[in-house]
Specification:
Layout: H1 2-6, E1 8-9, H2 10-19, H3 21-28, E2 30-31, E3 36-50, E4 55-64, E5 67-77, H4 83-88, H5 99-118, E6 130-138, E7 146-156
Parallel strand pairs: 1-3, 5-7
Antiparallel strand pairs: 2-3, 3-4, 3-6, 4-5, 6-7
Length: 157
């Protein structure tokens, strides 16, 4: 529920990050020791799917207030990063015995989110379709964001 309730429309979030990254990060992001993490949602057309490695991705073109943008969305089966865990805001390192358990939580959240988002859908069948995605990202590079999906529905052809 936290993901759905707190996800910010990507176009709005992106524009605010471009305008004033520090203010937008503090307003919408969560920080766990490193860069800020965000929950976001968007709709777009899947341009391509690359499943040649275990870290599979799709490229999704979305419309922002300033034109089109292309986002990278992880489709696995391996999902990298801790964006979901860190964007939630209620999972803290001090809640765990050690760093390994803290990392295990991120891995399990990624696994469950991907299973939920893809629901046994072959990512290559999404090319050309419109998808509605809610997920998380870590703000490492504003121009090369990688979204980890939590929810995804195919909304059209």
């Amino acid at each position: 529920p936290t993901v759905q309730q707190n996800a910010v429309d990507f176009s709005q979030l992106y524009d605010e990050l471009k305008l004033n990254q520090d203010a937008a990060s503090q307003k919408y992001g969560k920080k766990v020791g490193g860069p800020y993490n965000f929950l976001t949602k968007f709709e777009g057309k899947v341009l391509s799917a690359d499943t040649s490695s275990r870290v599979g991705v799709i490229k999704v073109e979305i419309q922002t207030q300033n034109g089109a943008a292309i986002l990278t969305v992880q489709v696995g089966p391996v999902v990298q990063g801790t964006s979901i865990r860190d964007a939630l805001g209620f999972i803290a390192f001090n809640d765990f015995v050690n760093q390994l358990q803290f990392a295990d939580v991120a891995d399990e959240l990624n696994t469950r989110a991907l299973q939920n988002a893809l629901n046994n859908t072959d990512p290559t069948t999404l090319v050309g379709k419109t998808v509605d995605i809610t997920g998380a990202f870590t703000l490492d590079n504003i121009d090369d964001l990688i979204i980890t999906p939590v929810f995804m529905t195919v909304t059209g052809l």
